[in-house]
């Protein structure tokens, strides 16, 4: 094992050693204001560095959530720096995933005519990492401006192929599907070019699990909230990079409703997780599966790229937990309601 691999393994597990504990979550759930949450995180957790200069009484929910996202990226960036040579291509895949999410967010803001929101939520800390000028997004006023900004990236061709006739509403769902397809294709190509044997198999398993769980979430939501037909559902799914059989996927898509879909899912590889928790929302269920698998690999694997990949998943879910707490506290939700959203 190389020095770089040993460094990634040691650093990732050291950072995980500072993760929020059950006691931390209970303490946070007992708090009554966002300022109290900030104070606790500053004085009792590893988030003290990003929150050190914040005045608790002046911070608002959006600002705190943005800082948590920044802290998440900086941790992962520090870890990725240990990657050397061609392996850096793997560790930089995280940037590509973030770019895809940013572009999708901008496209939704264009549709909603709310691009001014970017002034508040733009992740400027990504400057120097992205393949396009992140701050240039502040000068985007329409789809033409966006296409000019990203013209030299691989995203331009993908988005251009999905754009409607001028003046018609952008189909963001279609663009999301194709951008994610390009991302997962590139992810798989990178893994296969760099790794062999068990490491390759386990990295692809995590990728396939992520794609499958995203499909499951979409099927459930489309049935429960939009009464979508099987044809409409199929058009929005990524059916590449999955291990679920075509027969099972067809059964899920053709289920008569959301409850029937969950019942059919209980006969799949995910049957252990179905029915053992009250469904707060489908994302809780799917994220919990991914979290448990990622946590197992992160704690016991000796593969540096796998530990890196799974640390990213585990830490991102911790950030989502904190955002649930901040939002719940901000809107005076009771502790039990917020607790149901926490994955640990």
UniProtKB/TrEMBL annotation:
SUPFAM superfamilies: V-type ATP synthase subunit C. It comes from the Bacteria. GO terms for molecular function: proton-transporting ATPase activity, rotational mechanism. InterPro entries: ATPase_csu/dsu_sf, ATPase_V0-cplx_csu/dsu, V-ATPase_V0D/AC39_subunit, V-type_ATPase_csu/dsu_dom_3. Keywords: Ion transport, Transport. Signal peptide: none annotated. This is V-type ATPase subunit. It comes from Sharpea porci. The lineage of its organism: Bacteria, Bacillati, Bacillota, Erysipelotrichia, Erysipelotrichales.
């Amino acid at each position: 094992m190389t020095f770089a691999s040993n460094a990634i393994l040691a650093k990732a597990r050291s950072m995980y050693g500072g993760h929020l504990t059950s006691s931390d979550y209970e303490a946070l759930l007992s708090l009554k204001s966002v300022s109290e949450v900030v104070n606790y995180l500053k004085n009792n957790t590893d988030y003290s560095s990003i929150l050190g200069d914040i005045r608790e009484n002046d911070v608002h929910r959006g600002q705190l959530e943005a800082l948590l996202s920044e802290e998440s990226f900086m941790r992962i960036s520090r870890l990725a720096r240990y990657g050397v040579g061609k392996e850096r291509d793997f560790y930089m895949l995280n940037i590509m995933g973030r770019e895809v999410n940013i572009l999708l967010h901008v496209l939704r803001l264009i549709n909603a005519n709310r691009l001014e929101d970017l002034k508040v939520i733009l992740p400027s800390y990504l400057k120097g990492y992205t393949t396009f000028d992140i701050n240039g997004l502040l000068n985007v006023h329409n789809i033409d401006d966006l296409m000019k900004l990203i013209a030299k990236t691989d995203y331009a061709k993908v988005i251009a192929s999905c754009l409607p006739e001028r003046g018609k509403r952008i189909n963001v769902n279609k663009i999301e599907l194709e951008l994610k397809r390009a991302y997962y294709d590139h992810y798989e190509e990178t893994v296969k070019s760099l790794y062999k044997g068990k490491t390759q198999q386990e990295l692809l398993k995590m990728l396939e699990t992520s794609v499958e769980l995203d499909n499951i979430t979409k099927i459930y939501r489309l049935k429960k909230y939009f009464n979508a037909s099987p044809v409409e559902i199929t058009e929005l799914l990524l059916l590449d990079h999955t291990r679920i059989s075509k027969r099972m996927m067809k059964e899920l898509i053709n289920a008569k409703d959301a409850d029937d879909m969950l019942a059919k899912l209980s006969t799949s590889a995910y049957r252990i997780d179905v029915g053992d928790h009250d469904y707060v929302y489908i994302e809780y269920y799917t994220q919990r599966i991914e979290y448990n698998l990622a946590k197992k690999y992160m704690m016991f694997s000796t593969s540096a790229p796998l530990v890196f990949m799974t640390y990213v998943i585990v830490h991102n879910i911790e950030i989502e937990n904190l955002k649930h707490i901040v939002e719940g506290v901000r809107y005076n939700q009771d502790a039990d309601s917020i607790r149901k959203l926490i994955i640990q």
